[in-house]
Fold:
Amino acid sequence: MTVRVVLADDQPLVRSGLRVILADQPDLEVVGEAGTGAEAVRLVRETGPDVVVMDIRMPGMDGIEATRLITAGSAATRVLVLTTFDEDDHVYGALRAGASGFVVKDMALDDILAAIRVVASGDALLAPGVTRRLIAGFVGQRPAAVPERSVRRVEGITEREREVLALVGRGRSNSEIAEDLFITVATAKSHVSRLLAKLGARDRVQLVITAYEAGLVTLSR
Structure:
């Protein structure tokens, strides 16, 4: 199966570099390029890609608003945010908008390719720990940015599911959750699937955000 990708970045050199890298991968195909958020939204509507590799800082409509529109309009298309680790203070907003993860521009090329494949498979990019640390940092540093509706008690889930949600919030994998709770991996996966359905979350990234906003995870300083 070929993963169809749209590249959205206002720097032509970045897009060109990514396009060359992806062209060498038999399972990845670039179906469009955008230099603005508005162009990215249009291309998604026209081409229906599996993944959009999205820069955040673009002229006009930024990557956050573009991500919100794309994920609201297409359940199939996933957004992988492309960012600068030390500079970009909007990653949390992009994740809240529906992004399934993000990669850092100076990551190894193999890691970027792996990230595209992970997101395309329907999973979220939570490992290795870079995503976990960044989510924790942005949640911890921006309490004012959290809407009041998000800090309410999470209702409609069982106590066991609440335990699982807290562990997901700490970045634990299904196998690690199974080990922590003395259950099988299949049972852990089933709990996560029910949480996704009950909370209307797209993927594990959204569950992580919910866990932090609900106060189920305490940030260590």
User: Anything to note?
Assistant: The first helix runs from residue 12 to 23. Residues 127-131, 142-150 have pLDDT under 50 and may be disordered.
